[in-house]
Fold these 3 entries.
Entry 1:
Amino acid sequence: LGKQSRKRAVVLGGSMSGLFAARVLTEAYHTVTVVDRDELTGVSQPRRGVPQGRQVHGLLSSGHAVIEELFPGVTDEMVRAGAHIGDLAGNLRWLLNGIQLAQSHSGLTALTSSRPFLERHVRARVQALPGVEFLERTDVLRLRTSEDHRRVTGVWVAGREKGSAEQVLDADLVLDATGRGSRTPGWLMELGYPRADEEKLTIGLGYTTRHYKMRSDPFGTDTAINTMATPRNPRGAICAKVDGDRTVVTAYGTFGDHPPTDPEGFLAFIRSVSAPDIYDALQDAEPLDDPVGYRFPVNLRRRYDRLPRFPDGLLVIGDAVCSLNPSYAQGMTVAALEATTLRHHLRQGAPIDPLAYFRDLSTYAIDRAWDLMAGGDPGVDDVGPTRTERFRHAYVTRVERAATRDAEVAQAYLRVIALVEPAESLIRPSLVLRVLRNTLGAPYSSLRAHRKTLIQEGPRTS
Ligand SMILES: Cc1cc2nc3c(=O)[nH]c(=O)nc-3n(C[C@H](O)[C@H](O)[C@H](O)COP(=O)(O)OP(=O)(O)OC[C@H]3O[C@@H](n4cnc5c(N)ncnc54)[C@H](O)[C@@H]3O)c2cc1C
């Protein structure tokens, strides 16, 4: 079926996943209405409906590739407007346990900007598409369905201005992109559907972010410095060039070990992370705002894909389905990959089978990110690691050590982190050999000594 028979899709939520979805829906629907409680048009500051927008937002290479495909030329546009572009393995300085990964050119893009900047550019592209309309400062209230509750036929909304009347938006498809606080689970129960299982992994993560104008340059030819948290060193910090000639600095810790939000405490936390170059550069940097914190207690995945039935005319996307440990920087990329899954189903013809859509969302957009994150966060559930998990951790630790010495291993590792390649790519025989060659002859103590030197002298910059 073409556009003739598909009249209106209503997207609930105009954040990243709502925007990606709206773009894809214009290929199949005459009108795509995006509803959000916030004012969106022209907004380039963090907004209420997306409080995480004040924190650093990295865009993984695979997500960037989808965005550029959906909005050709948007990367150039953003770089002209102040975003920074580099090579994922060549211009991002990755540190693990204080040791820098070997750098080399990978051809994978790393775009750094603030979250509101990225959203504003993507939103402007979506707003310019024919058939798209935005209903801003409007609350989504509840679904409207057929009498037998088998089909969603629209959604009730109300403007935020005082005295605004409720109105119904008729829709051939309603897509819930309202984020983690999505009300679809409650709506389903009210309509007599079973509740979707929720998978939760507790991490007790805390973020604190501050923006600076740098006076000394910690970057050299790099665009960002990323000190990743590891089981041995569970605190992390990111320092990245972003739009507006600013540098964003974020620190994070897990299981209640949260970076303080007072300036001295924040600096002291940064000092405790194995990233002396970030700490040193902050000594004479000019703060542009106060440190802002954010708590992320639990990774959450709603298993709509396992439900026996689901109403027609309703789909869910983005954080509303799965919200992932932010320190892996996967959320926007998963949302972009989900939009391509949605497009695949739209091209199969109407109506979309919701359960088939959710199963494909799991397989093609979520599983890889979720498994990578869950595998990298030992101790996140009550059950201890299995023998296979222990073996996997031991091997990944070797990969990480080898990646500090061998650029090819570093690239393979970063391709997995960036969701470009599956984790299985790390066990191809040629790579296993490289990993062993780089770690068997290097006893752990010598690596520790290497790390100590790096912490004292600062990491390599090339
Ligand atoms: C601290 C933190 C850091 C992060 N860092 C990264 C990162 O580095 N890289 C990355 O890729 N991802 C990151 N993420 C995840 C990323 O923010 C989300 O995955 C991304 O925003 C996609 O979410 P979404 O569009 O599904 O929902 P959201 O971004 O949560 O947006 C939901 C939208 O729905 C609207 N809305 C909600 N309820 C209603 C209602 N009833 N009526 C009307 N409108 C409503 C809101 O106003 C909002 O616009 C981070 C998340 C957090 C918490």
Entry 2:
Amino acid sequence: MPSPARSETGDPLPLTPGPMTTSKSVKQAAVDDWGSRDATFVALNAEVMENLPKIIHGEDALVTAPMQGLGGFAVEAMLTTFAARVGAALVLVNGAYGQRAKRILSETPAITHIFAVHCETTSGVLNSIERIAALCARHGRRLPIDAPSAFGALDLDARMTPFDAVAASANKCLEDAPGLGFVVCRREALAKSEGDATTLSLDLLDQRRNLEKTGRCRFTPPIRAIVALHQALRDFWADGGGCCCGRRYRENARILIGGMRSLGFETLPPDALQAPIIGAFRRPSHPNFPFQRFYDSLKERGYLIYPGKLKVADSLRIGCIGALYSEQMRSALRAARETLAEMRVAPAPAA
Ligand SMILES: *Cc1c(COP(=O)(O)O)cnc(C)c1O
């Protein structure tokens, strides 16, 4: 077997929807120690927080409320700050992250909020957030968006699309290490949430006020993740911003999905709903295909894939985000082909 695939820093390549492969420059930015109250960090932190709304063209209308933790903390903070006390939310579910939101919200009769996931990372479904937003606006409903795997790569324009808040995290399309979630909020919507948050740690208004007053999070910040995000954002803009990142992922997804199909795999979502972030494939029912063996064999070749997370079908997932390019996607597919041959799961002939 040839030597296993490695990133530019010698690590295996996670083909997962975050944490994923980070670049050398991002990793190097995360090695130093910083003082969280020190003016140098406070200035860097301010730059990161001001930068995030620009990614979705919201530099005037939006503000960032950071949330220590992962995307799920940011999503829960968004829901408990904006939508827990003021009525009920209708949760649009087409995967496990929609299910998770349903568990966070309790049921009450008058629907005030619609909760939607931009890219449902567990099924690979891309929801038409513009159409959902237009419907919400027409019916006077508020829209909080769950967007960790979309933010930075999939189009969203705050000038055209009405929403209250977008929850995301640093460790997906922004290609940073895990540790920082954030919610980019409409100023007025955030101001109106006064007294509504149902928890202390996840209160976005309190967090934002503290940030404005002191330049810091209320509690210990994930300092290395923030410093590394500062570098990741520099690289993001230097590479051309969200449209270029989106274009690279779309090409990765095209190679991945076409290649997996030629190996006999079926995608779960119909093509019209497929997001260019992650492929969710049905697990082959072939008796020679235990998932763990496929996984281990790919791991030996340097690629870490993901099991499925869906109730509707036995699936496996392969992500195409992170510091990955068409070259890595092609070699991952070669590895999958070798693995299937080794397992004696005959791939179906290419269509
Ligand atoms: C990653 C992700 C989350 C957050 O999950 P964590 O496990 O907390 O990182 C939430 N929603 C979507 C759509 C995601 O892709």
Entry 3:
Amino acid sequence: MAGIHAYAVQLPRLTVAAQEYATMWGRCAARIEAKRVPDHDEDAFTLALAAAREVLPKGPAPSVLLTASSQEPGFGALLADALGMGGARLGEHRGPTAALQALQEANDAVAAGHGAALVVASDAPAFAPDDEAEHGAGAGAIALLLTAKGPVQLRRAAHGAAPGLPGLDRSDAALAQAFAALTRSGLAADSIAKVAGNDLDGTLGKVAAKAFPKAKVNPALARIGDAGAASPLLALARALEEVPPGEALVLAAHGEGQAIALALEAEAAPHAATLAQALAAPTEALDYARMARLRGFLASGGSTVSQGAAVSPAQFLDQQPARLRLEAQRCAACDKVQFPPREGCLECGGITFKPQRLSGKGEVYSVSTIGRGSAPAEFAEQQRRAGAYDVALVSLEEGPRVAAQVCDAAPGHVRVGDPVRLVVRRLYVQDGAVRYGFKARPT
Ligand SMILES: [Zn+2]
């Protein structure tokens, strides 16, 4: 029977306490203690890619990729490209119930014999500074690998719909319908130990208490905030980490007059880079002013006109997939490995190469700090938001030496000889499009 074989959670390391909003605005409008916010070079794509890369080695290679995110169409294709899943069947889901649609579709694909399926839910919602929805806006990603014998099995699914009127959301009624349909289909209401989902506004708790009187409802995201399309599956991770194998749980998502409820049962614990581990990793706390600068509340914004320091848009897009996959070239003539890809071998001039994946592991060969005013135009906006940054020359395990910005560390923190790992982050916005590339993260 198809089921979840493994999952991996990825959270930004930056946190903002609810207290910062209470001080700034008089109250925090979200029911949270704190939230995770993306750094200037993180977004739904970089979080999704990191989560997917962590879960893929834990099982068979998937042939289906389903995404849940509020990102523009094309998100799934870029992700597939970066993961080297170019031939995979793709599906993109959007909206409040997107993650559960993706999970259901993945389950159906695996059950129908299409091999393993990867579900990636990732979001980093953003709102205007004076919008109360901004108070809870967090970020996070989760990647789940479903296989033919995964231990967490989807037993029943039910949908509800209650179209509202303008200004009147009837998602609570849709949710009640979905729960009622689950019990009508034979699910014993008293057998449910836990109801998991996004409950930042309290609706899920109220509706679930009536439908499943013995269940506990998870306030799972109190330290993450609203991770948009990723929230329901992050709540699932929390529930799986708390409910002993053999107990049944209900996973729900609702919004915009729609609801989905799934009944799941874990026969054993899946392989996991757990939510608990992600929450326990080191964090950096931001005050409101620093967060506001990072999120661009105070910056001029806009896209950058290249001064020619960076490669041309055409050349960049041409090379981007190989860069995101950390795909180097091995020269067929002299065996030298070079990265990023070039037309000819720098060693012997050969023009025939075999692709070689890099581990991304390396050590700092040299490092310098780029202060205000000395950054190329592409990075001026980054400097306005985040200040000075380091650029390191990194000697990679496989031989090539590459220049990369240092991320997740204060300027001056990284020293020559330090171990680092290349990770994919946002570089800058050019001609209205986000450019991604690798940066060096201390390990
Ligand atoms: Zn060569």
